[in-house]
Design brief:
The chain is α+β, with helices and mostly antiparallel strands. The chain is 46% helix and 18% strand. The protein contains ten helices and eight strands. The chain has a six-stranded antiparallel β-sheet with strand order 1-2-7-4-5-8. Strands 3-6 form a two-stranded antiparallel sheet. Helix 2 runs antiparallel to helix 3, helix 4 crosses helix 7 and helix 7 packs across helix 9. The two termini are 13 Å apart. Keywords: DNA-binding, Transcription, Transcription regulation. This is Helix-turn-helix domain-containing protein.
Length: 239
């Protein structure tokens, strides 16, 4: 079971909750350009930005509550450049002072009588840390441009940077360069279209691929399986 809602405290973030099925199951988590702060049975975990699908084994009865940050926001909350967490899952205490991580885990435990109230703790803490971190309008502009289908050169000109400067800033903000972020965002857009009933060929054209074969290659590279297999698996768990 999986459900999500928009965050009331952190702009663009998503609060999600997932319960594992009654039987052991391997889940495929797809790249989305985001970072997550997750409460698991073992404590608090940070999921970095992925460049490829991650396979995870769900234990029966396991429950997860997470806060998914939009591209570029996670580093401001967590205090580390995104590229240091690329394709990684690390405990929060590896990034924050041990006392801060422990206090957050204790607050979560106290309010986990309802999973939603536990998620509110993550939102509150993230909002406080964002108020302390300097805002970077450039990051939002880059993500919006790439999501809209602009080329890396067009985005660089639009924000007043060279492509080399944009690449360096993108590593810190998103975990990878703008070309990779554009690939991931285009893949997610195409997948949303196909899941919404749009034929793959039409979804490929609308998302900006050269043709359906191009979409198929990218799905295989980013998801690790063919599009038909990915769709047969149903909607994968997020976070």
């Amino acid at each position: 079971m999986y459900e999500e809602r928009g965050s009331r405290w952190v702009a663009g973030a998503v609060v999600w909750r997932r319960e594992a099925p009654a039987r052991p199951q391997r889940a495929r988590v797809l790249p989305d350009g985001c970072m997550d702060l997750i409460r698991t049975g073992g404590g608090l975990l940070v999921a970095g930005p992925d460049t490829r699908a991650q396979l995870t084994d769900d234990l029966p009865g396991a429950g997860y509550v997470g806060l998914r940050f939009p591209p570029g926001t996670g580093p401001r909350v967590l205090g580390v450049p995104a590229h240091e967490l690329r394709d990684a899952r690390v405990p929060l205490e590896a990034l924050w002072p041990e006392r801060e991580a422990r206090e957050l885990a204790e607050r979560m435990a106290e309010r986990m009588a309802g999973a939603r109230s536990g998620a509110a703790v993550l939102e509150e803490v993230a909002a406080v840390r964002l108020r302390r971190a300097p805002d970077d309008p450039l990051t939002a502009a880059v993500a919006a441009g790439l999501r809209g289908g602009a080329s890396v050169a067009e985005v660089a000109r639009g924000v007043g940077l060279s492509e080399r400067q944009l690449h360096r800033r993108s590593l810190a903000a998103f975990g990878y360069g703008p070309k990779t972020l554009a690939r991931v965002l285009r893949f997610r857009r195409a997948l949303r279209l196909v899941r919404g009933g749009v034929p793959p060929a039409s979804a490929a054209a609308e998302a900006g691929y050269a043709d359906q074969a191009h979409l198929s290659r990218e799905v295989r590279a980013l998801a690790g399986v063919q599009l038909s297999v990915l769709l047969s698996e149903g909607r994968p768990p997020e976070g």
